[in-house]
Amino acid sequence: MAPSVLSADFARLYEQVAAVESAGAEILHLDVMDGHFVPNISFGVPVIESLRKCSKMFFDAHLMITEPKRYAEAFVKAGCDHITFHTEVTQEPDAVVEHIRGLGASVGVCLNPTTPISAIESILDSVDLVLVMSVWPGFGGQSFISDVLPKVTELHKRLAEHQRLEIDGGIDPATIGAAAAAGADTFVAGSAIFGTPDPVAAMLKLHRLAVEAVGNQAGG
Asked: Which residues neighbour 122 within 8 Å (Cβ) at sequence distance 6 or greater?
């Protein structure tokens, strides 16, 4: 599970992040939006710097911005362990991968719902993670797009054991099972965790449902 702080109560941000971390969350998903690549602005370096001081979680930064190569260094210096960029914003994805890795961070590439796997063919073997968007990026709380599941399944077949397959968008108790059965191993959830009265219980339930879905698939 990778709880997304985009849906957290920013007046209680430390409290909510600390709660899910204490409950076993190892990855914190950081949705950075620039108001250009996506029609919204979220947060940036200062918020991440502040969270880094009080959390030991793996910081997974999802840069929904038009110039990831330009800004990656600032996010790594702020404390991000991992940077994911969108393939849709660059004609030279290899250079972006090399730049981010040179900063000392692991690197991922993201595909929008209708972007085919062929768009990342040249870097598929060189990234640590592939993120499949199951909503259109830019806003939290959107409905899950099930049409992306065949893409998840194909990526699951092609990625190496050390590469992670993350899915982001509309992940909740009704959808996480299908995403897990399709082959995703890392699940970004925002409103389904932080938008509930008990974020810890919500996160643990999502994790249980994902594990059950994989187990049922293996058994059936």
From this structure: 93, 94
Q: Distance between CA 5 and CA 193 in Å, rounded?
A: 9
- Looking up tokens 């990831």 gives 68
Q: Is 81 an annotated catalytic residue?
A: no
Q: Where are the domains of the chain?
A: 2-219
The b-or-e profile of 191-204 (16+ CB within 10 A means b, else e) is bbbbbeeebbebbb
CA dihedral 189, 154, 112, 93 (to 10 degrees): 110
168 assigned to active site: yes
pLDDT tens for residues 161-182?
999 999 999 999 999 999 999 9
For residue 39, the Cα-to-chain-centroid distance in whole angstroms is 18
Give the model confidence (pLDDT) of 109-162 as tens digits: 999 999 999 999 999 999 999 999 999 998 767 889 999 999 999 999 999 999
Asked if 52 and 59 touch (Cβ cutoff 8 Å), the reply is yes
- Total-model pTM: 0.95
Domain 2-219 is in which class?
alpha beta
H or E element that contains 165: strand 164-168
Looking at 31, 34, 60, 172, which residue is catalytic?
31
Q: Residue 202 and residue 214: Cα distance in Å, rounded?
A: 19
Spot the catalytic one: 34, 60, 128, 168: 168
- For 5, 59, 109, the CA distances from 47, given in Å and listed in that order, are 10, 12, 23
107 burial (CB, 10 Å; 0-12 / 13-18 / 19+) is buried
